[in-house]
Amino acid sequence: MNKWIRGTNATVLSIAVIGIFIILTIFLHSLKGFQVDLTKNKNFTLSEQTTAALKNLNQDIHVIAFTNSGDGNDFVTRQVTDMVAEYKKQSSKITYDEYDMLKQPSMAKQYGVDQGGTIIFELGTKKQNINFYELFVGQQDGSYTFSGEEKFTQAIQSLTSAEKHTVYLLSGHQEYPASAMSIFKSSLAAANYDVKDLNLYVEGKIPDDAQMLMLLGPTNDLNDKEAELIQTYLKGKGKIYIALGFNKDMTTKWKNIDAIMKTYGIQDQHAIAIETKQTSLYDPLTIIPEYGSHDITNKLSSNNLITMLSLAVSLNADESAPDYTKSLLLTTTDKAYGETDINLLAQNKTKQDATDVKGPLNLGYAISDKDNKPKAVILGGSTFVLDEDIQNQGNKDFALNSIGWLQEQRDQITIRPRQGDAYQQAMITPSQANTIFLITIVFLPLLFLVIGGLIWWRRRRG
């Protein structure tokens, strides 16, 4: 009798557990958009920029993927389709169709697609084509990262935004070449900025359509005529984004660059920031600054995304330009100091002395005019815009947020999609594949079956 009761209790308990599991599954499935992302870097959580873009979407966007069932790239296709599914969860304005090039060649011909692995974002007569290979970024160790969210959101923003902002990159002063800032420039282009180069020594004037000038990493000074043109431009509606480079003779050779900054009450202290309180990952010349309270940096701070600068010049704000408001963006710890003896720095013999600037050092300011309109962003360093650094932590967001703030584009002050974790392809032989199959599909299930049978047999005998 007791044995029968125990067996009945076990059965009822098992049925109850199964029932609870089924009810919980149905309940969770009924919650639209509910999911819990347990990955370290939130790989399956859409970024703030993406969710905002989808929330504000008021036009239907048709997404079409053309695949090829014979190319063996099922994993790549699944990555793409899973990402589109996340977008559909967030917005009913996103519709999706997938066509196999081999089975439905007429659809591919209709869209002018001649190879598998292409995804198209379509809004009315406007289209954005993206090849699958553009969504995967190879790494030096042979792995790759998936940047599908970034590309998809850029495509949607490009289709839905009709406004273009024309900005000019100043050249002729040993600034960074365009090839070293390809990611930064492509990100600006994707955000509907028309980025053009401008050599004032050649052109002789600032174009009428210039909404902003960018001086990124200059080594040499502007000449007097260039400085005069820029000062005249800035007296009107012109805006400027200055991110200083490095020149060992900056104290005597940056007269005109210093004068332009002085217009806004920003003083170049001609000292290179040295951070003694640093992590073991970076040298003292690589600064991880603290953020000031400002629209440009607030979201970066709340998301714990750092910005990194190298060979950064210390800046200071004074009262010489009362019509402008200077808001601090970046500052060092009080353990830092500004090395004024650049020759010692070049010989790697720097040490703090009485002639150096005491910390904390200020490394960046946002400038507003008397009407509280954005006028300038002035930064003591510029390495964060280089391809080798811009993907690190919050570098790209800081750079693009600064531009967005200057152009009064509130939707461009955000946290953008991050690249996914690196995937490493494993190359295995057919015999290795057979071994894995036999162990996981045949041997392990059979082992559990045998163990379960033995346990059942022993209990029955007892």
Largest sheet: 8 strands, mixed
The helix tally amounts to 14
Mean pLDDT comes to 86
| Termini Cα gap | 15 Å
As residue ranges, the low-confidence spans are none
Secondary-structure class: alpha/beta
Report the strand count: 20
Strand content: 15-25%
What sort of overall outline do the alpha carbons produce when their principal axes are compared? globular
As a percent range, the share of helical residues equals 25-40%
Protein described:
The structure is a single chain. With 462 residues, the protein is α/β, with parallel strands linked by helices. 36% of the residues lie in helices and 21% in strands. It contains 14 helices and 20 strands. It has helices at 2-30, 48-55, 74-90, 105-110, 148-160, 182-190, 200-203, 224-235, 250-253, 255-263, 295-302, 342-346, 395-406, 430-461; strands at residues 61-67, 94-100, 118-123, 126-131, 136-138, 144-146, 165-170, 193-198, 212-216, 240-243, 266-274, 286-287, 290-291, 309-310, 313-317, 325-331, 337-339, 357-358, 362-368, 374-379. The protein has an eight-stranded mixed sheet. Helix 8 runs parallel beside helix 10 and helix 11 packs antiparallel against helix 13 (395-406). The longest helix has 32 residues, at 430-461. The two termini are 15 Å apart. The mean pLDDT is 86.
Provide key terms for this protein.
single chain; 462 residues; 20 strands; 14 helices; alpha/beta; 21% strand; four-stranded mixed sheet; eight-stranded mixed sheet
